Structure formats: C-alpha cells, structure tokens
C-alpha cells in the first residue's frame, strides 16, 4: 500500500491580483497566469487617456474597475489574494513637467496605498513593474575604465555628436551592458517615480517581512501595444507610421542601442518572479533586468519593421530629443541564473509578428 500522507502536495496555484491588468503588459501577464491555471483578479482604473475602449468581458477573471490610489478600493481588491503583480502605472515620458504630480500620484502614492493595504491584509508577496529608466544613461568603458556619462549637451547634439565622449581622448565611449548593481540615475519624472516605487517596496519588505521582486523592463513591444498616446515608445510609433503608409522617422543617426523584449517574455518573467517570491526569505527585495539579451539599434528596428510590413524605408532625420539617453542595454543574466527565465521570442520573429499585429484601440 502506498502511503500518500508523506507525498508532498503540489504547490497550490496562487490567487493573483494584477493591477493594471487591462493594459498592454498587465493583459499579457493575465493571459500567462490563466494559462498556468492560476486564479486571477484584475484591478484597473481604465483611465480614458490610456484606454481607447472598454475591454471585452472575460469570464475567466474577476475584473474590478477602480484606482490603486484609493485605499477602500485596494482593500476590497486584496481580499483573498496571495500575490500582487503591480503593473498599474502612468508610463512614458509624458507631455511636459505639468505631468509631474500625476506621475507621482499614480505611481508613488498608488504603490504606497497598495503596500499599506497589503500590510494590513497580511499579503507578503509582490512583483513590481519597474523600468530600465532607473539607470538613466547606460554604462560605458573609457580610458579611465567604467563610467556613467552625464546628460548630453545640446551643442554636441546640434553638431551631430550623439555618442557620449571620453573626456580624455575625445573618442566615443564603449557601451556596456547595465547590471542591476550599476549606479541609478533617474533623469525624468517617470524614472524617479519608478525608482520611488522600488524604494517603497524595499521599505515595505523590510518593515513587514514581505518578499518583493522589481522587474526592470527594457523596451517592451508586441501585439496590443498602445498607439497614439504621448506615452508611446518608439516601436509603437514606427508601427503606427507604417500603418498610415508613412516611413518611420528615426532620430539622431539611428545607431542608438536598445534591447527590444517581447511582451510575452515580459509576462513569463513576471510568472517566474511570482514563483520566486514563494520560497524567498522574509524581508527580501531583489531587482532584475528584463531584456531579450540581444542588442539592436533604433535604425535596425525601423528597418526590420519596414521590411516586414512591406512599407517605406525609414528616414533618418538627425533630429534629437533633449533628454533621450544614447545607449541603454541590459544584462538579464541575473534573471536567467536565479529565476531560470529564458526569452522565447527572437528579434526577427518578434518584429515580423509586430509589423502586422493589432495595436490597442486609439485614444480619442
Ligand atoms: C523607453 C520608454 C521608457 C521605458 C524604457 C525602457 C517611452 C516613451 N519610453 O525609453 O518608458 O522605461 O524604454 O528601457 O515609452 N526615437 C526615434 N523616433 C521616434 C521616437 C523615438 O528615433 O519617433 C528614438 C529616440 O530618440 C530614442 C529611441 O528611439 O533614441 C527610444 O525612444 P523611446 O522608445 O521613446 O524611449 P526610451 O528612451 O527607449
């Protein structure tokens, strides 16, 4: 006779709350969690400046419409939850500095309210959507070794000098992959609000014994990406231009380096992070970069999309946006080593899919 009392039970599927679960990335996390057989609740404010229409009702999830900055809403949303995956945020670069209070309110106050609610409810597992923007400019090597250059000067950019230069030699610095322990240098309000969220999560884990993961996303793209908001990333802008029959407009010389990571790989990283929080020691906070591991230029990406969409070739304008960083590419080795995560989508296959994939409904 087999003694079943000593057999270890299969780990119970967690009941997951995804804040921002109606969004581009949150929606992909919800899909991935459902595919794993997890119970999923969504809390989303469905802000009209982000959501062009209401999501179709999905009987597989419990959908709560409400704002994460509202303590009453949050208390209701947290009832019976094991893990929170916090994706709700105001993203992108915004319109101008008058956006600052909204970034701080949505992202930092929202996270503080959520964490206070979790502390009250005794929920001790958190996965937080963070961003590569917390690093500012990428890491480089120059004649003096490792360096983190400051913001580029308008005079250099006007003269077509886009790469940060080695002050000793005047030659371009060599871009490196950014590691999680490299210096943090948030350079805009969005970036500082993302880092603020990380610091809040760190304080929460210390004071409550919670276990938190921050995932620093690289440039995320894929089906369902927002299109015409002031908060859209470059992949979406190029994709939208091609859909209108126009050429993608590439700034600087097109050689800016980024890492484009597919939204389904971001979702799988979130699930791996949820798994990781379960056995993690109490009071842990750990940050992980999430990138595909392959470096591409903005010009490469524009060309790949134009070819895949059979559209006009990109136009490189030499214009610039003051405040853009030149190169930022991550090492995601920590995520691979500690969480066993692997990206599944190559740049080529991902861009081929994205060139014709549906985007989110336009915001009117
Ligand atoms: C983007 C995100 C940021 C995210 C980060 C992750 C936005 C606005 N920014 O920052 O929130 O955390 O990735 O690493 O979503 N460009 C063009 N043509 C255009 C628009 C942009 O060539 O029409 C160029 C820019 O000059 C820049 C590059 O594309 O060099 C990337 O731009 P963008 O996607 O806006 O911002 P990131 O700095 O990568």
UniProtKB/TrEMBL annotation:
Domain NAD-dependent epimerase/dehydratase: 17-140, 180-291
Source domain of life: Bacteria
Residues in the signal sequence: none
Pfam family, one: Epimerase
Coiled coil: none
SUPFAM superfamilies recorded: NAD(P)-binding Rossmann-fold domains
Family affiliation: Belongs to the NAD(P)-dependent epimerase/dehydratase family.
Descriptive protein name: NAD-dependent dehydratase
Biological source species: Cryobacterium arcticum
